[in-house]
Amino acid sequence: MNLSTQRDNEKPKVRIRDDFWDGYMELVRDTVIPYQWDALNDRIADAAPSYAIQNFRIAAGLAEGEFGGMVFQDSDVAKWLEAVGYSLAGHPDPELEKTADGVIELIAAAQRSDGYLNTYFTLKEPGKEWTNLQEAHELYCAGHMMEAAVAYYEGTGKRRLLEVMCKFADYIDSVFGPEPGKLHGYDGHQEIELALVKLYRVTAEERYLRLSRFFIDARGEKPSFFVEEWERRGRFSHWTQKVTALPDLAYFQAHEPVREQSVAVGHAVRAVYMYAAMADLARLTGDQSLLEACRRLWRNTTARQMYITGGIGSTHHGEAFSFDYDLPNDTVYAETCASIGLMFFASRMLQLEPKSEYADVLERALYNNVIGSMSQDGKHYFYVNPLEVWPEASEKNPGRHHVKAVRQKWFGCSCCPPNVARLLCSLNDYIYTASPETNTVYAHLFIGSESSFELAGGSVKMKQVSGLPWEGKVRFEVTPAASGSEFTLALRIPDWCAGKAGLTVNGSPAPYDIEQGYALIKRQWSEGDVVVWELELQAQLIAARPEIRANAGKAAIQRGPLVYCLEQADNGSPLAAVSIVREAELGTRYEAGLLGGAVIVEGEGQIEDEAVWEADDAPYLPLSSTRQTRSVHLTAVPYYLWGNRGQGEMTVWIRTAAGKKE
Amino acid sequence: MNLSTQRDNEKPKVRIRDDFWDGYMELVRDTVIPYQWDALNDRIADAAPSYAIQNFRIAAGLAEGEFGGMVFQDSDVAKWLEAVGYSLAGHPDPELEKTADGVIELIAAAQRSDGYLNTYFTLKEPGKEWTNLQEAHELYCAGHMMEAAVAYYEGTGKRRLLEVMCKFADYIDSVFGPEPGKLHGYDGHQEIELALVKLYRVTAEERYLRLSRFFIDARGEKPSFFVEEWERRGRFSHWTQKVTALPDLAYFQAHEPVREQSVAVGHAVRAVYMYAAMADLARLTGDQSLLEACRRLWRNTTARQMYITGGIGSTHHGEAFSFDYDLPNDTVYAETCASIGLMFFASRMLQLEPKSEYADVLERALYNNVIGSMSQDGKHYFYVNPLEVWPEASEKNPGRHHVKAVRQKWFGCSCCPPNVARLLCSLNDYIYTASPETNTVYAHLFIGSESSFELAGGSVKMKQVSGLPWEGKVRFEVTPAASGSEFTLALRIPDWCAGKAGLTVNGSPAPYDIEQGYALIKRQWSEGDVVVWELELQAQLIAARPEIRANAGKAAIQRGPLVYCLEQADNGSPLAAVSIVREAELGTRYEAGLLGGAVIVEGEGQIEDEAVWEADDAPYLPLSSTRQTRSVHLTAVPYYLWGNRGQGEMTVWIRTAAGKKE
């Protein structure tokens, strides 16, 4: 084994210091991580037990009992450890580190001598390892624990979990691969592919990279591994405990070789985790056909199957993509984990090729679907992130049961909350990329932070101060190690500012070249150089393509990266009776008292006059007798804050109306 | 047993002779009944076998084999016989009658000596009779066969099947009832309740009426029969063949005593079949609390849970009602059978109390949801009748799989097609009611026909000639048996003519009194008296209440009883991009070439200009850059004709826009 830290230098060192984001970091540190620790240990009253830690205790021989929870329960421990690793990197906490070290020893003790590690199979189905890759999440759990190992190693310098997982990776490498006698299979839930790339990054062990590529290459080849495996296990399903039909290969993105895929299909989280790994591999191996597939899948996902909030997955059946332009707002899925996975994919595409569209989507998902999933107390979550909610329908129409009108308590077994935790704890990794080849620092996100970069011309420190999402002024203070060293600072021109971005360098307006959506500032930098990037932050109405039928005749409100919504609390019910005047000015106002403070958007609306309907209980009447509208004042709040003021209707897309001239 | 025909006199004798409806009668006679006969005998190539006739042959000892099909397969034979009975009444056919007589002998031979009759239990679970009323449809099948017996007796005068079913009814009466030692249960699918009332009507056997009332009275009482039965059968389910959870009593409308029910819940067909029986019993027993419950349930169903097409049932989960004002157009259920059941309920309410609102709904369901379910060839059917269709979504979004974009072949086991057949064959029964007490003939539907009525003042013949649904002129020719005899002719003032209904009697304009939505013409009638009822038939835009969120900002087109829709074939795709100008005149034009001839409606519309979107693949752009509309000509066709010109988008509700002034 060849553990190395040298490749670590590729990653900029970034620490967030930001008025908007510091609160989230603290929430994760002070609330989410401790709360999840309690959950993993079955200490949350009135929540279903997790069993996750107990499973490891039993597998380690420290306790007696039976395996509990889902077949992928181990991954909850992994995600927690990963979040802890990120957290400790920026915010040392000896107490937390001690707890985590203890968990890692437990994991090490649960590992088999040959390296195998999975409490479900160790405790419940020993001997059945690798017989149901389609359903049993073995490599998925391994992948999450590898991610945890890398994060913990990078956060603390401690190699214990990394060694455990390298041993497991070596074992997996002995079982899977293209060679005769090995299993030519892959997991039903992609995850290990991107994890092995991370393991390769910190260990430089090329076998891990090759193994990741093997999993990607094998997927979708004919004859289908999943079909053959299904036959081998007597067509029996773990989930239904019955003989089942032929697996739906598209659900697992195993319907065709990944290089031939052009359309996002199947389970959305599986899809984007896979795309992220494909982008990693395209970058690290220079595989052009993989790059082309990534570009096609990116385009399809983001131009045809993405909600304006950065949500993906239009149906709860299989938590899946449906098809191009099918983006229903009310029966939506838009799982939190899927948007997080979309961020993974976007950030890898940025590493591949810095184009602002990747960062635009990354930012869109982050500021809307992802942070909107968490309540302000950090203890309640949306798994499904709807763009239109009618609470009574969520309760009484079974086709909408999956759409919750209020955030749910974080139950023992759950994917989204720990995913939010690990994402927020590692948000610093998404702000910049640095390219030693082109001697350029790309600023993708405008989040206050202190950073250092290793470039061809030496190291550079940079401080970013950002007013986002409330104000559009972003300030960069550059401190090169050596005065006069040259490099390019590339500032993203966000899609939402319509090119209205002003630049000053040391107080003087500066023209700039634009490349792939970035303003390039190439100069010799001196200590104290200040770049100010002024982005127009104007609330505006956004329309959707006509092919997106659900949004016909409607508009959404967006201001900067934030999508807004109407809530019943501000605008009454039924919300659908309200329309927004297309030509009217949208006003903005900072409301310090609103859920931690937020800019609200105000507009002129119209509402159908209800008088005629009150006189009659008829459901339908001639339009001519009912068409009376009156003006109303509309108040929109950021989407990420919806559902924090009790239960009520919400809508992102608002009917539009002509104004007074009508 | 006391078979009697004297009560038959209550029913007016009506024979349809109508340009619009004759075609449907012929279709049912010449195509649907023979086609169904082939289906019942497993002679339809590439359709799943029905087994229905074969089951009776096996049970009768004439063939060997096993029971096939659903537990309620017998009811398909019953519905066919019922339709045949109605058909023979108006259109003798010795060949068909011979075939039906043969089936009846088969049924008689399959009857147990104690009267019990059900091929599923006789062949497959003998000894298990009456042990799973919740699921096994025994009384449901019995009810349908009773309806068949009554129809066949009334259509042919032959009592064979009537005697068979009276024997079964007597047996059921010995098993069920309030007395100690009897089963205090009721069926999971209401049907026998209304069938027993029919049996009572032709036999005057009050035990049948009492038994019907017992089933209605027992339903929903606590402790719940279904819960106790579920415990007795070890909580085992016929359908899943597994132990299942507590039955959802609301699904069966058994959650509370029927007299306490105010909101339509659960499986829509079950609900309206029950409401129909409740209305029958309220009329025949003078039960005021039952009448009040009928009125409440009518109001809730039709004012809060009914589509503009007369469809009911907002969700395919349980084919059920959801809740007030939840009427999604795209994930709709609106099962054909449920609208037919709504017509049953409406016609019984009309017998109880002649109010035009009952006939308005009856007509709405008939002209839209019901006849729209059948293709023009009589061999393809919609079970689900959507108000908005996007064929690709029906195929690729699992939440819409139940919504078919084209009518489906009539498969062996199916409820809706035979229900349409028996409804259309008995449509003559829905046109009039005659009240000997008030000496009044009510004309509820305007369908050309020849009729005779028995009134206090003697018998009256009446010929109706109607231009509906294309023209609003309706002509009545009255021929009393004795010249000068007095009675009242009450003509319905349809909700769609907004009171614009002109009356002439023998060519002279005549004023009229209005009572409960009927124009009353009380006079002494002479042979050849002619009443002309001129109803304004104007195409108009209809709005929905603001509480019906799915239709916010939209309008439907209605002309007379017909609801219209836009189809892709006439208006392109995506249909959602089109809006209709609110103030513009709607034109009408008779198109002889359109699917047998129909009046189409034309209007002025707007469409979003797609140029800006074609230049870019962005899913979302600022509204200000995209908001260009151009005028389009819109063509709407009657809803009942949709989906007959290939597969395409369809919508009933159309976005509205302000006109040129904008």
Provide a descriptive summary of the structure in words.
Two copies of one chain form a homodimer. Chain A is α+β, with helices and mostly antiparallel strands. Helices cover 36% and strands 20% of the residues of chain A. Chain A is built from 20 helices and 25 strands. In chain A, the strands form four sheets. In chain A, strands 1-7-8-9-15-11-12 form a seven-stranded antiparallel β-sheet, with no helix packed on it. In chain A, a hairpin with a 2-residue loop joins strand 7 (449-455) and strand 8 (458-466). In chain A, helix 1 (21-40) runs antiparallel to helix 3 (74-90), helix 3 runs parallel beside helix 7 (138-156) and helix 9 packs parallel to helix 12.
Oligomerization category of the chains in this entry: homodimer
Q: Give the overall silhouette of chain A.
A: globular
Q: For the record, give the distance between the C-alpha atoms at the N and C termini of chain A, rounded to a whole number.
A: 75 Å
Largest interface, C-beta within 8 A: A-B, 66 and 65 residues
Give me the count of strands of chain A: 25
Unreliable stretches of chain A, pLDDT < 50, 5 or more residues?
1-9
Q: For the largest beta sheet of chain A, what order do the strands appear in spatially?
A: 1-7-8-9-15-11-12
Mean pLDDT of chain A: 94
Class from helix and strand fractions of chain A: alpha+beta
Strand fraction of chain A equals 15-25%
- Count up the helices of chain A: 20
Sheet of most strands of chain A: 7 strands, antiparallel
Please state the CA-atom Rg of chain A, rounded to the nearest Å. 25 Å
Percent of residues in helices of chain A? 25-40%
